[in-house]
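ok new one. same drill as before - structure tokens go in, u give me an amino acid for every spot. 201 of them this time. try not to just spam alanines like last time pls lmao
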């Protein structure tokens, strides 16, 4: 799929104030600093569309970006960021879960995990929660450029084996790098295939 336009629409902390359009949307979620905002910039070929930072906790709101004027990419705050206060964490947690349970336009959640790390409890629990709420999701392994060609498949296999302890099959997954552009075509083709089924293009 060719992205011919990608524009910021609005930021919200309140799900009820998100765009009213009935366009399909795809949300990026995962731990702080995993690379959600960077991946949105990589996919859209726009370096500063979503704000990124080396310090975790950069994205604090629900951010809608409209792509090709027909569908949305949504950048969300990270979960599990240790350095925000407990009360701030609760507010984040609340609007993230509200977003996923209330947003009927959501077609697929992309759960981002850093390919360098062993499976983390918080991610596995979040995917469990998505499953319980029947919210379709894929896994996106990020920062593939940070592992060697031999270490990368080992890490992914470890992850798959852990997932298969809880799931009867491995969800659709993608291996990406926002630095090299790895995985870009695959993620966009996947979104395109869903949009086509929904008769959007
Ligand atoms: P929060 O908004 O804080 O939840 O973080 P985020 O998940 O949006 O992460 P962000 O995109 O801001 O990236 C965090 C840091 O990781 C930045 O310093 C990025 O440059 C870096 N980063 C993101 N993706 C990649 C990648 O694929 N490869 C490498 N080498 N660095 C990356
Ligand atoms: Mg971010």
């Amino acid at each position: 799929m060719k992205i011919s336009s990608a524009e910021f629409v609005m930021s919200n902390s309140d799900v009820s104030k998100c765009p009213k359009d009935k366009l399909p949307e795809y949300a990026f979620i995962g731990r702080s600093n995993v690379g959600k905002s960077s991946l949105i910039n990589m996919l859209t070929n726009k370096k500063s569309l979503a704000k990124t930072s080396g310090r975790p906790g950069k994205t604090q709101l629900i951010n809608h970006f409209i792509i090709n004027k027909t569908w949305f990419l949504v950048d969300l705050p990270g979960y599990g960021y240790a350095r925000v206060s407990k009360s701030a964490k609760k507010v984040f947690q609340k609007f993230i879960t509200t977003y996923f349970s209330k947003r009927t336009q959501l077609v697929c959640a992309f759960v981002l995990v850093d390919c360098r790390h062993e499976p983390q409890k918080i991610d596995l629990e979040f995917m469990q929660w998505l499953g319980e709420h029947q919210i379709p999701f894929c896994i996106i392994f990020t920062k593939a450029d940070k592992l060697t060609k031999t270490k990368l498949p080992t890490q992914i296999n470890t992850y798959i084996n852990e997932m298969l302890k809880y799931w009867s099959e491995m969800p659709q997954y993608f291996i990406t790098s926002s630095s090299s552009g790895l995985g870009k075509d695959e993620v966009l083709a996947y979104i395109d295939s869903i949009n086509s089924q929904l008769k959007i293009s």
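The chain has five helices and seven strands. and btw The longest helix spans residues 86-102.
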